[in-house]
C-alpha cells in the first residue's frame, strides 16, 4: 500500500502465482471488485483500516498484519513486489496474528485523542516558553502550569508589578492568547470524549478500574475493537510493551528491561494512572492497596508503577473480553 500506487500479488489454492500487477489508487476497488471473494492480506499502516473496510464491503475476507510479522517473509531485496509477496505468504500462516479492523467511530475517537495529545504538547511548549522568557527578566515562577497561568493573568494588567519592556510584554501577551485558545480547544475535545464515553458501555466498565479515568478508558475502548484476539491478559500487556524483554536460550530465562513495544500512547496513559494508584496506596484500604504497599517496601517506586500498569492492562482485557465490571476486593 502507498499513497498512489498499490502492488497486488495473488496465488491460488496450490500456491501458484496468478496475479502480479501495480494498480493506481482510483482503480483499486474496481480491480478487486472483479475478483471472486478471497482472502486478502494488508500490512497494517496508515489508511489500512479504511481500505480494509472498503475491500471487505466487496465480499472479501480482509486481514491486517503488523509490519514486524511480515518482515521475516521478505526475500533478500526489498521492493513493492517483494513486500506484496511476503504479505501474501504471511497471511496464509495458521499461527499468524492479525490486527482487528477498527470502525469509523473508533477511529474518530482516536483522532480526538491524537488531537488532544498534540494540543497538550503545544500547551506545554508555550508554558515553558513563557516561563523561560520571564526568567530572562528576573521573574522566576514556581513549578506547575498554575503558576505560569497566574503570571499570564498579571501580564494584561499594567500595574501588575512585573518590570518588563513593552516589546517583551507584547510578545508574552501573544503567547498568552495562544495558551488560552489551546486550553479551550482541549476542553472542547474532552467534552466530546465524555459524550462518547457515556454512550459506550465498554468505556464505562473500564473506568471502574483504579487508575483508569475518562481519557484512558475511551482510548482503550477505541483501540481494542476485539479483545478476543488476545488469548489472555498477559498477551494484552505484552502487546502494550509492559512486560520484560526476553533473551532466553538453553533453558535459561533471561529477562531484561520493559520491552516498550506496541502502543506507546496507551502505555503512557496506564503508567500515569498507575502512578496515581501508587500515591494513594498508603490510604487505600483494599487488597490492591495492601499489595502496592508491600511492593513499595521491597522495590523502587517506578518499578512498582510499571507493575501496577501491567496489572491494570490485564484487568482491562478481562473486563473487555468478559463484559464485566471491576469488583473491589476488600483487604484481608
Plain-language structure description:
By secondary structure, this protein is mainly α. 55% of the residues lie in helices and 10% in strands. It has 13 helices and six strands. It has helices at 28-33, 48-56, 67-70, 80-90, 104-135, 145-155, 166-199, 201-206, 214-223, 233-239, 264-280, 287-298, 301-322, and strands at 5-11, 17-24, 39-43, 61-65, 244-246, 255-258. The strands form three sheets. The chain has a two-stranded antiparallel ribbon with strand order 1-2. Strands 3-4 form a two-stranded parallel ribbon. Helix 2 (48-56) links the parallel strand 3 and strand 4. Helix 5 (104-135) packs antiparallel against helix 7 (166-199), helix 5 (104-135) packs across helix 9 (214-223) and helix 10 (233-239) packs across helix 13 (301-322). The longest helix is centred in the middle third of the chain and has 34 residues, at 166-199. The protein is globular and about 80 Å long. The mean pLDDT is 90.
Report mean pLDDT, rounded to a whole number: 90
Largest sheet: 2 strands, antiparallel
Number of DSSP helical runs: 13
Radius of gyration: 25 Å
Q: Cα distance, first to last residue?
A: 56 Å
User: How large is the share of residues in beta strands?
Assistant: 5-15%
- Large-scale geometry: globular
Structural class: mainly alpha
Q: What are the segments in which pLDDT stays under 50 over at least 5 consecutive residues? A: none
How do the strands of the widest beta sheet line up side by side? 1-2
Number of extended strands: 6
Amount of helix: 40-55%
Order of helices and strands: EEHEHEHHHHHHHHEEHHH
Amino acid at each position: 500500500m502507498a499513497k498512489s500506487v498499490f502492488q497486488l500479488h495473488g496465488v491460488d489454492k496450490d500456491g501458484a502465482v496468478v496475479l502480479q500487477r501495480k494498480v493506481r489508487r482510483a482503480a483499486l476497488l474496481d480491480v478487486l471488485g472483479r475478483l471472486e471473494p478471497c482472502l486478502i492480506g494488508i500490512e497494517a499502516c496508515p489508511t489500512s483500516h479504511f481500505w480494509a473496510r472498503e475491500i471487505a464491503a466487496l465480499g472479501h475476507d480482509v486481514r491486517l498484519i503488523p509490519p514486524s510479522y511480515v518482515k521475516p517473509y521478505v526475500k533478500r531485496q526489498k521492493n513493492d513486489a517483494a513486500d506484496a509477496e511476503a504479505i501474501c505468504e504471511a497471511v496464509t500462516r495458521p499461527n499468524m496474528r492479525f490486527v482487528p479492523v477498527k470502525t469509523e467511530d473508533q477511529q474518530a475517537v482516536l483522532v480526538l485523542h491524537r488531537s488532544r495529545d498534540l494540543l497538550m504538547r503545544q500547551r506545554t511548549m508555550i508554558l515553558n516558553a513563557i516561563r523561560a522568557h520571564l526568567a530572562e527578566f528576573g521573574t522566576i515562577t514556581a513549578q506547575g502550569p498554575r503558576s505560569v497561568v497566574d503570571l499570564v493573568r498579571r501580564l494584561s494588567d499594567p500595574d501588575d508589578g512585573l518590570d518588563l519592556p513593552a516589546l517583551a510584554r507584547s510578545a508574552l501577551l501573544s503567547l498568552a492568547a495562544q495558551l488560552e485558545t489551546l486550553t479551550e480547544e482541549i476542553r472542547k475535545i474532552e467534552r466530546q470524549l465524555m459524550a462518547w464515553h457515556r454512550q459506550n458501555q465498554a468505556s464505562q466498565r473500564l473506568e471502574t478500574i483504579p487508575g483508569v479515568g475518562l481519557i484512558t478508558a475511551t482510548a482503550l475502548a477505541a483501540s481494542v475493537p476485539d479483545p478476543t484476539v488476545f488469548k489472555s491478559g498477559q498477551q494484552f500487556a505484552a502487546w502494550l510493551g509492559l512486560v520484560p524483554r526476553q533473551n532466553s536460550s538453553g533453558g535459561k530465562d533471561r529477562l531484561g528491561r520493559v520491552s516498550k513495544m506496541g502502543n506507546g500512547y496507551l502505555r503512557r496513559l496506564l503508567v500515569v494512572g498507575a502512578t496515581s494508584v501508587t500515591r494513594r496506596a498508603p490510604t487505600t484500604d483494599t487488597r490492591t492497596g495492601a499489595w502496592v504497599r508491600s511492593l513499595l517496601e521491597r522495590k523502587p517506586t517506578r518499578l512498582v508503577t510499571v507493575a501496577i500498569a501491567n496489572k491494570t492492562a490485564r484487568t482491562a482485557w478481562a473486563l473487555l473480553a468478559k463484559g464485566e465490571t471491576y469488583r473491589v476486593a476488600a483487604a484481608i
